Amino acid sequence: MPKYIGIDLGTANTLLYMKGRGIVLREPSVVAVERQTERVRAVGRDAKLMLGKTPGSITAHRPIKDGVIADFEITAAMLRDFFKRISAGNLFSRPYVSVCVPYGVTEVERRAFKDATREAGARAVAMVSEPIAAAIGAGLRVSGPRGSMVVDIGGGTTEVAVLSLGGIVRSTSLRIAGDELDESIVQYIKEKYGISISESMAEMLKKQIGSVHWSTDEGTMNIQGLTQRTSARSGLPAVLTISAGELREAMYDQIEQILKCICSTLESTPPELSADIYDYGIMLTGGSALLRGLPNLIAERTGIRVTLAKNPLDCVALGLGRMIESDNKVDNNLEYES
Ligand code: ADP
Ligand code: MG
Q: In the 3-class helix/strand/coil scheme, how is the chain assigned residue by residue?
């Protein structure tokens, strides 16, 4: 029995879907490597814990940047480890793998997705356009003539796509998403309080009390940081109380750019399709769609109803799953190439 696997290889998280079993793996796209020997020491969750605090002999890498493969060898090593965990990679049953690729990447970038997947042990690889998988996973029917808009906000990129008849009519990609929000929170706290915090602390703040609309500003959170090198008392631990309103201020510029990207894509959409989008609304997917207040803010700015997908972090993998389970009968034909 051949195995069929779908991969959502994201900047922040990698998800694996196995035919007949559903989503079988969700791990951060992080690999810790021993500097001297180049041996892989940890992959996924364990490696993420090492980010920013690895001892000199180990470095933690994020091999996917801005939605595409930035380090081929490390990506292949990560996938090999994931395949092994779900026991999909042994010689006798090398899997058929479909992998999602962002829309609008170059031929070279596309090729890297295919080669890394094969290098990791796939027998044959099919490429699937990511916005289409996200839309299917969010429950949209994409094969009909009705236009729809999917906005996927992940870790490294925001992808806005208009779909109709199973294809992509318009698509815009912005290299601003969750990671940049974390960075701008680090920056804001440094400038306002002279305190340095880690990016993972910023991410925690964002998830716990982050809000981008006044109506969802709630609560405060205590965090630990270090006084900056430049101050008289440098490098000492400090405790700060940060409010939701402050985070909204910190994330303002990045969020504005995301809004602009959505609005400009709407403006360039053919009128017949934008009429559909006005009628049926915008679908929001990706982990950063969970930011409090984002659906309200986008709806307010565009005048269009916004639906937050049911499992925003899983949409792409679930969409791939639908395609795999239906043996190619759904919307998109998977063409495996060996
Ligand atoms: P990618 O597809 O790029 O790997 P994901 O769709 O997995 O990205 O989303 C990861 C991003 O979602 C990260 O930047 C993470 O901080 C953010 N995220 C996850 N949960 C939340 C939440 N509850 N609130 C805000 N951001 C979140
Ligand atoms: Mg994604």
A: CCCEEEEEECCCEEEEEECCCEEEEEEECCEEEECCCCCEEEECHHHHHHCCCCCCCEEEECCEECCEECCHHHHHHHHHHHHHHCCCCCHHHCCEEEEEECCCCCHHHHHHHHHHHHHCCCCEEEEEEHHHHHHHHCCCCCCCCCCEEEEEECCCCEEEEEEECCEEEEEEEECCCHHHHHHHHHHHHHHHHCEECCHHHHHHHHHHHCECCHHHCCCEEEEEEEECCCCCCCCCEEEEEEEHHHHHHHHHHHHHHHHHHHHHHHHCCCHHHHHHHHHHCEEEECHHHHCECHHHHHHHHHCCCEEECCCCCCHHHHHHHHHHHCCCCCCCCCCCEC
Topology, domain 140-308: Nucleotidyltransferase; domain 5 (3.30.420)
Q: What is the pLDDT of residues 109-154, one digit of tens each?
A: 999 999 999 999 999 999 999 999 999 999 999 999 999 999 999 9
pLDDT in tens, 56-103: 889 999 999 999 999 999 999 999 999 999 986 565 689 999 999 999
Residues in the ligand 1 pocket, defined by CB under 6 Å? 10-13, 154-156, 178-179, 203, 206-207, 210, 286-288, 290-291, 313
Nearest-ligand number for the alpha carbon of 287:
1
The pLDDT tens digits of the residues spanning 294-322 come to: 999 999 999 999 999 999 999 999 999 99
CA of 8 to the centre of ligand 2 (A): 7
Nearest CA to ligand 1 atom 26: 288
Delimit the CATH 3.30.420.40 region(s) of the chain.
Answer: 4-132+316-325, 140-308
Residue from 8, 9, 13 to probe ligand 1 pocket by mutation (most atoms less than 8 Å from CB)? 13
User: In CATH, what number does 4-132+316-325 get?
Assistant: 3.30.420.40
